[in-house]
Design goal:
With 483 residues, the chain is of the alpha/beta class. The protein has 13 helices and 22 strands.
Length: 483
């Protein structure tokens, strides 16, 4: 993050009035609540402003929680008719999508209450204000309430935590059609016979495979390659996996025009027309900061509309902070929460930065895609001379026992020192494996040190050790559990 401003010099214990420091937070998602809890804990009076009907932001309501429940249910359905274990009969599952959605939303409501609503009930220092907020000036918010009444809110510190929304590409005819975003797709109570998904990154991949597992015939259209920011091997391998499952993957494809005749969609591309019952647009997300009149507060944004912050979550205005998906930070809920907590601490007089050099990432396809640290190209751009090894899962005993050897593990290490700088993998439990690699990178562990660690057998994470061993050995010539 760029250092766009200095750390506040004023004493956080003092303010313009005689009471405690007043912190105003716009939004009620993970970064907002993390900041609210920490600021209140340190003695601040906190006001949270939210215009949506429910609190909790993207993750619990329309993101992480419902999507992972849907993905897990779809995976279980898929396993019933797609496994390799003798003596366990295959059967075609009977999917009741309405029942799936009902259960899913019960869990959404439960977690929203436990992690958000109950916190407000139990913390008198955090006040919820309903309404649409925008800046009048750098010290004042204008809040339009649901009855159109306008009110003003002044505060000593502000945190902008308004999240992001789906980005809708400029494709002729698209806006006049009843397309889905992930929000609608997650609560759709029927499984479309045919579904086209626009996008080649996380949301597109996860939901394309989930609907495929539930019985839809899916076509996936990506503007370039799959997971274009990841190692090239990752996108290539995932493409093969999805195609083996019956998904039609069209790379370097963007519709020229989209039409809807009242029953089905028709997408015109340079490679021909595609007809489908439903269309899911999952082409990224854009910051909601454009709704706040940031120019009236002097808060700077970048070319994409995301709020510019430094590593202390400060904007170009020293008493206004921002965190989460409305900024240029990586769009992960755990990053947003960490940023919110640190923003609150800085508001209250501390001096803490967020370190985003080692951020583990997971795509919840089956198998999962996970990565942390640098790719080979990124390392070379930073002037680091690296070497890498890629171990296919045929060499990991647990993958053999699972009868699922789809995927690989790749380690990237500095040549001279052996220091691990990146890990990229596709594996059935990749999300559970990647944190071990993150800890190795954070602590400067070398390939040799990792190769000499004791890993439990049979586990998927043992593959990290085996991959490390390939820098100096032919692991196919080792006995099982070879140290």
């Amino acid at each position: 993050m760029s250092d766009c401003c200095a750390i506040p010099s004023e004493d956080a214990a003092s303010n313009s009035s005689t009471g405690p420091l007043h912190v105003a937070i716009i939004g009620t998602g993970s970064s907002a609540f993390a900041a609210a809890i920490k600021a209140a804990e340190k003695g601040a009076r906190v006001s949270i402003v939210e215009f949506a009907d429910v609190i909790g932001g993207t993750c619990v309501n329309v993101g992480c929680v419902p999507s992972k429940i849907m993905i897990r249910g779809a995976h279980i359905a898929h396993l019933q008719s797609h496994h390799h274990f003798d003596g366990v009969p295959l059967n075609a599952p009977q999917i009741d999508r309405k029942a799936m959605v009902t259960q899913q939303q019960r869990w959404v409501e439960k977690l929203r209450y436990e992690k958000y609503e109950r916190i407000l009930e139990n913390n008198p220092d955090i006040e919820l204000i309903r309404g649409q907020a925008k800046f009048k000036d750098a010290k004042t918010l204008l809040i339009e309430k649901q009855n159109a009444e306008m009110t003003e809110l002044t505060a000593d510190r502000f945190l902008i935590a308004v999240g992001a929304r789906p980005h809708i590409p400029d494709i002729k005819g698209l806006l006049g059609t009843p397309y889905w975003t992930s929000t609608e797709a997650l609560v759709a109570d029927a499984i479309p016979q045919t579904l086209t998904v626009l996008g080649g990154s996380v949301v597109a991949l996860e939901l394309a495979q989930a609907f495929n597992h539930l019985g839809s015939k899916v076509t996936l259209m990506a503007r370039s390659r799959l997971l274009s920011k990841a190692e090239a091997e990752t996108g290539d391998a995932l493409k093969s996996i999805l195609e083996d499952e019956g998904i039609e993957v069209q790379l370097n494809t963007v519709p020229n025009e989209i039409r809807f005749d009242g029953k089905q969609f028709s997408l015109t591309t340079d490679k021909g027309d595609v007809v489908c019952e439903n269309l899911l647009v999952a082409t990224g997300r854009r910051s909601n900061a454009d709704r706040l009149q940031l120019n009236k507060a002097g808060v700077a944004v970048d070319a994409s509309g995301s709020i510019v912050i430094n590593d202390h979550m400060q904007t170009s205005v020293k008493h206004i902070y921002a965190a989460g998906d409305c900024t240029s930070q990586p769009q992960f809920v755990y990053v947003a929460a960490a940023a919110g907590t640190r923003a609150a601490r800085n508001m209250m007089g501390e001096d803490v930065a967020i370190n985003l050099s080692v951020v583990p990432k997971v795509v919840f396809t089956t198998p999962q895609v996970a990565s942390v640290g640098l790719t080979e190209n990124e390392a070379m751009k930073e002037g680091i001379d690296v070497e890498s090894r890629l171990l296919t899962l045929e060499n990991v005993p647990r993958a053999l026992a699972n009868m699922d050897t789809r995927g690989f593990i790749k380690l990237v290490a500095e040549k001279n020192t052996g220091r691990i700088v990146g890990c990229h993998l596709i594996a059935s439990e990749g999300g559970e494996m990647i944190q071990s690699a993150a800890l190795a990178i954070s602590n400067g562990i070398s390939i040799e040190t990792l190769a000499n660690q004791l890993f439990p057998y049979l586990t998927m994470v043992e593959g990290l050790k085996l991959c490390a061993q390939t820098f100096n050995k032919d692991v196919s010539q080792l006995s099982c559990c070879a140290g």
